[in-house]
Amino acid sequence: MGIHLPAQVINEFVFNHVGGDVNEFIEIFGSPTTDYSGLRLLVIEGDAGGAAGTIDRVITVGTTNASGLWVSAFFTDLENGSQTLLLVNGFSGNLEDDLDTDDNGTLDVTPWTSILDAVAVNDGGSGDRLYGEPVLNPDFDGSTFAVGGASRIPNGTDTNQPVDWVRNDFEGAGLPNFPSAVASQGEAMNTPGASNQVQSAPANPSLSFTTTSQTVSEGVGTVTVRVTLNNPNANQTTVLVSVDGANTTASNVTDYDFIPATLIFPPNDGDPIDVTLTVLNDEIIESSETITLRLSGATNSATIDEGVHTITITDDDAPTSATVRINEILFNSPDTDTQNEYIELRGDANTAIPANTYLVGIEGDGSSSGDVQTLFNLSGLSFGSNGLLVLLQNNNTYTVDANANTLTSNADGWSGFSFYEADGNAVDIENSSVSFLLIQSNTAPQLADDIDQENDGTPDGTVYSGWTILDGVAVVDLATDAAYAPVIFAQNGAAARPAASIVVDTEGNTAEYVARIASLNGATAEDWVGGRVTGTEPNFSLTAGQVVPAAFSGQALNHIGSANPDIPSPTLAFFCYYFPNCRRKRRNGDDSGKHQQSWR
Predict the structure, then answer these.
(1) What is residue 317's predicted lDDT score, i.e. its pLDDT?
(2) Cis bond leading into 538, ω under 30°?
(3) Is residue 148 within 8 Å of 162, Cβ to Cβ?
(4) Coil, strand, or helix at residue 187?
(5) Mean of per-residue pLDDT scores for the chain
(6) DSSP of 12-48, one letter per residue?
(7) Beta-strand (E) ranges in 135-220?
(8) Three-class secondary structure of residue 199 per DSSP
(9) Which residues contact 545 (CB under 8 A, 6 or more apart)?
């Protein structure tokens, strides 16, 4: 007896919804976890006027999820009029091909092996042409409006009749940009990537904290927590916000000031309400403390979805480090970059990193050069007894010196750190052209902040003018890419860069690891080593012949959380011969940055 696999069908589509069309999509249903990259979705123009039969869009299908669903990216420009959607195999045509050369509603050109499925939308225009069945007319379900989106109910139902389809909620219920929208009874929810469903009855109101946690410094003052109401109805909804004493380590009056508050959401009003409390500075050196807020006592049959918000207060009374330096960064390993990357920072032993200190990764590629791509808010993080702080990704297998302070992400890659952000929610660090800048700024940097508006390698603009650069190192893989650090490891010995920067030619190799040599603190080439990495986790080493200085070829990266190695003897004298500043530093016993060049 054979196994019956579901046919591949168009399962859901949204061509039009309320407001700006920012969440348009098309969904396919088939076998679970199956690669359908050989299939194409074709959107064919149907409006009269000479363009009928033209291919407006060609979309490559991907791999279905465990439920057998594949969903496209969100579009903003799918047409709203009469059109036909075909799922085809063996497509050999091109975008803008005219498949109905005489505009009579019959396909004259069929550049595919087979049609697996079709559905057409007719907006009622005179002379419109449609090229597949079923056809969803404005009145296919008793309405008078053109169909903006529809779903097969249930998934995969295919009798080739309009009855297989239910109109989607036009107000955006289920779409990410419309979190408060509620579908009317009998309408299909918008469910990209999830099972299709019909709104059977009005949903109960639901209450949530917008976020579940945040970390603040002891001296921050006012802290704001937002509460949202989904699915408001004609009745007023109230909820109590109070402190959960059993799960709170901070003390009211001495550590914070808060009075329980009853929030009142008016009828049919889903606007969020902000709750504030005051964090007090007690001038006592202590461990981090927590305040746990809880939602309770909701009225109007409202449910509580995310009802706990934890505020972690980091002590700002500990002594802060006089200096903070980048010590080493592995940002591209031979294995996965979601568990093997690490960052090591150096400062004064048993001190905290000053407030408003950030490690930012600046994009160096093309038109995005100068954009903040990754950022770590280091404020208040502490150095260990040996003056080192190590940041590790989730599921790493490294052994770290116990004298360092080690923090490990508790979710994929870096995403488990509340002080980490990345463009596109990336969980790893940019691998190609990137500048690592250690900065202080009274205004918190934001993702996509642009410090090079001219894209010429010279920092500019109001964002950059507010930064104090504490340290920096960069890597570029193309001579046309940009870098913004004082020391730049360049694959071809060149980059768009500030005039004061120093370029280290990595001779055709893109560095994957950068580190300070020993305990040097300066901003010259002699202070740094950079190169490619080989090996398997956790036993990585610098690739022979692909590292600068070459004396570090084969150096094991087995010193995480402890002092970086010096130039391997007996090559130190040779190295210093070619780098006069090295001779001057070591002759004067200067590892403290005495000869560090000014950088801004």
Answers:
(1) 63
(2) yes
(3) no
(4) coil
(5) 91
(6) EEES--SSS---BEEEEE-STT-B-TTEEEEEEE--S
(7) 135-136, 149-152, 165-167, 206-209, 213-217
(8) coil
(9) 553
- Domains of the chain, by residue range, sit at 1-200, 206-314, 324-587
Question: What pLDDT shows up at residue 540?
Answer: 97
Task: State residue 62 phi and psi, 5-degree precision.
Answer: -115, -145
Neighbour order of strands in the sheet with 303-306: 256-257, 273-279, 221-230, 206-209, 303-306
- Please give the pLDDT value at position 569: 66
pLDDT tens for 66-85 read 999 999 999 999 989 999 99
Q: Hey, what are 98's tokens?
A: 């005219």
- Token duo for residue 434: 């990137």
d(CA 90, CA 115): 9
Dihedral angle computed from the Cα positions of residues 225, 231, 232 and 233, in that order, rounded to the nearest 10 degrees: -170
How far, in Å, CA of 358 to CA of 308, rounded? 28
Q: Name the pLDDT band for 285 (thresholds 50, 70, 90).
A: low
**Is the entire prediction scored with pTM above 0.70?**
no
Question: Taking CA 358 as the corner, what is the angle to CA 371 and CA 464, rounded to the nearest 5 degrees?
Answer: 45
Which residues lie closer than 8 Å to 417 by C-beta, 6 or more apart?
376, 391, 407, 409
pLDDT for residue 318 = 60
DSSP string across 41-72: EEEEE--SSS-TTBEEEEEE--B--TTSEEEP
Which two three-digit tokens encode residue 360? 């930012």
The pLDDT assigned to 283 comes to: 63
Q: Which residue, among 477, 509, 515, has the nearest Cα to 494 in the 3D structure?
A: 477
Region 391-419: mean pLDDT is 97
Judge whether 512 and 333 are in contact, CB under 8 Å. yes
Using H for helix, E for strand and C for coil, what is the string for 309-378? EEEEEECCCCCECCCEEEEEEECCCCCCCCCCCEEEEEECCCCECCCCEEEEEEECCHHHCCEEEEEEEC
Of 409, 431, 405, which is closest to residue 420 (Cα–Cα)?
409
By the 8 A CB rule, do 434 and 484 touch?
no
E strands in 139-284: 149-152, 165-167, 206-209, 213-217, 221-230, 237-243, 256-257, 261-265, 273-279
Helix (DSSP H) and strand (DSSP E) numbers for the chain: 3, 34
Give the whole-angstrom CA distance, residue 170 versus residue 203: 17
pLDDT at 321: 83
Query: Model confidence over 436-452: pLDDT tens digits?
Result: 999 999 999 999 899 99
Taking the C-alpha atoms of residue 213 and residue 210, their distance in angstroms, rounded to an integer, is: 9
Q: CA-CA distances (angstroms) from residue 339 to 291, 363, 409, 427, 454?
A: 31, 22, 9, 9, 35
**CATH code, residues 206-314:** 2.60.40.2030
